[in-house]
Design a protein that fits this description.
The chain has helices at 3-11, 17-29, 66-69, 77-88, 126-142, 154-163, 194-197, 204-219, and strands at 47-48, 54-57, 109-112, 148-152, 177-179, 185-189. With 226 residues, the chain is of the alpha/beta class. It has a single domain, classed as Uracil-DNA glycosylase-like domain (Uracil-DNA Glycosylase, subunit E), CATH 3.40.470.10. A six-stranded mixed β-sheet has the order 1-3-2-4-6-5. Strand 5 (177-179) and strand 6 form a beta hairpin. Helix 4 (77-88) packs across helix 8. 42% of the residues are buried.
């Protein structure tokens, strides 16, 4: 089993009827501004450098973003904010993520999500999150160089905490750092959604500081708690 095979399994998944129906209906009906484009309309695989020290965990694909382009955080405002910041921090080869074949490369970073299909109203059910959690669990077994796990939002943080059996779990907060017994650090940030970036709850300066902290933590020698 490899990451390539795992991503293939993700793309072929049809386990959640509500999500399958929604993602395919959105892909068929399309948004007017994208009516001439072919939508991906399937589960979205992870993206990035398999030897990355930084693992970024989002929430789920956007209906007209990754569900359209087939690549995490690509083709929507959240991705515009994220990739521009990754570029400034030296993790991305370019600031703009428009299509899956735009030449974007990630260096020392890998992007994943606890839910792989676009959910209605951007809200997956608890059962859908549980069903999809196996993919995240399997992914952790292949990403052997990860030192920092950047959780974007409380749902991503909760998903990681459950998969890694973190108990007790500190309450989510922007800038929160949780050191795992195995030595990795979970670093939390508000999600890069428009609800946060357009309102000023998450600014470029705030997110740049989070990524700078991630780089600082990833340079440190990983030590296990005894």
């Amino acid at each position: 089993m490899t990451l390539l095979k795992l991503n293939k399994d993700i793309i072929e998944c049809r386990k959640c009827p509500r999500l399958v129906e929604w993602r395919e209906r959105v892909a068929a009906e399309k948004r007017a501004s994208f009516r001439d484009q072919e939508y991906w309309g399937k589960p979205v695989p992870s993206f990035g450098d398999p030897k990355a020290k930084l693992l970024i965990v989002g929430l789920a694909p956007a209906a007209h973003g990754a569900n359209r382009t087939g690549r995490m955080f690509t083709g929507d405002r959240s991705g515009d904010f994220l990739f521009a910041a990754l570029y400034r921090a030296g993790y991305a080869s370019q600031p703009d993520a428009i299509t899956s074949d735009d030449g974007m490369e990630l260096m020392d970073a890998y992007i994943t999500a606890p839910v792989r299909c676009a959910p209605p109203q951007n809200k997956p059910t608890a059962q859908e999150q549980r069903t999809c959690s196996d993919y995240l669990k399997r992914e952790f077994t292949y990403l052997n160089n990860v030192k920092v796990i950047l959780a974007l939002g409380s749902i991503g943080y909760t998903a990681i905490s459950k998969e890694l059996n973190i108990t007790p779990r500190p309450k989510f907060a922007h800038g929160l750092e949780v050191k795992l017994k195995s030595g990795e650090i979970i670093l939390c940030s508000y999600h890069v959604s428009q609800q946060n970036t357009f309102t000023g709850r998450l600014t470029e300066e705030m997110f740049d500081a989070v990524l700078e902290r991630a780089k600082e933590l990833s340079r440190k020698k990983r030590t296990k708690d005894e």
